[in-house]
Design brief:
With 191 residues, this protein is an alpha/beta fold. Helices cover 29% and strands 32% of the residues. The chain is built from 5 helices and 10 strands; from the N terminus they run αββαβαββββαβαββ. The strands form 3 sheets. Strands 4-3-7-8-9-10 form a 6-stranded mixed beta sheet, sandwiched between helices. Strands 1-2 form a two-stranded antiparallel ribbon. It has a two-stranded antiparallel ribbon with strand order 5-6. The N and C termini lie close together (11 Å).
Length: 191
């Protein structure tokens, strides 16, 4: 998606440890028009899959997931990272390691909003090692729902996440695929 690649070129900052900071438009300040286009693109890519719900992990996945749900006209569920007084029991849970934060979070989704007839599209802001999607897949297994695939806003193709998910038979659609962050420069995979 050229519009997304242009935003990454214009506003992305490469940090040590192969971290790409895109807080100007995705995971701190949100560009709603770009997120609308991201959601519309995921809706096109998965149009024939019979999606009934969109799932993501809070918080950076929420904006692209909501726009995808809007474009597909289906509900969006975000896995919570923190316990809430309103969410106590009847939860599906999984542990997820964050590459950028170097912490493990227990994510949870209320059983109340998940039906065994659901067909789920998972949306995430970044795919590096695939931990967030793996956590959502673990919850999907617990719930017995079908997974149509994973829509990724930015994939770090030089890290193993996408390959490992594809080896498991998970369809992965990434809107921007980064080949390298060497020398503080973003290089994209050419399709």
């Amino acid at each position: 998606m050229k519009e997304l690649e242009e935003k990454i070129k214009q506003y992305g900052t490469v940090l040590p440890g192969n971290v790409l900071k895109v807080d100007a438009f995705l995971n701190h300040q949100v560009d709603p028009e770009l997120m609308l286009h991201v959601g519309q693109e995921f809706a096109k890519l998965f149009a024939n899959e019979g999606i009934t719900k969109v799932w993501t992990v809070e918080s950076s996945g929420i904006a692209p997931a909501v726009m995808t749900g809007l474009a597909m006209k289906v509900p969006v569920i975000f896995a919570r990272k923190h316990k809430s007084l309103t969410l106590k029991n009847d939860m599906y849970t999984a542990d997820v390691y964050s590459y950028t934060k170097k912490t493990t979070n227990r994510i949870s989704i209320s059983k109340k909003y998940v039906a065994p007839t659901d067909k789920v599209l998972m949306i995430d802001d970044f795919l590096a090692n695939g931990q967030a999607v793996e956590g959502m897949l673990e919850i999907a297994d617990q719930a017995g729902v079908e997974v149509a695939g994973a829509g990724i806003v930015i994939e770090k193709s030089f890290q193993p996440g996408a390959g490992e998910l594809k080896e498991r038979g998970i369809r992965v659609e990434s809107l921007a695929r980064i080949k390298s962050l060497a020398d503080n420069k973003v290089t994209f995979v050419e399709d």
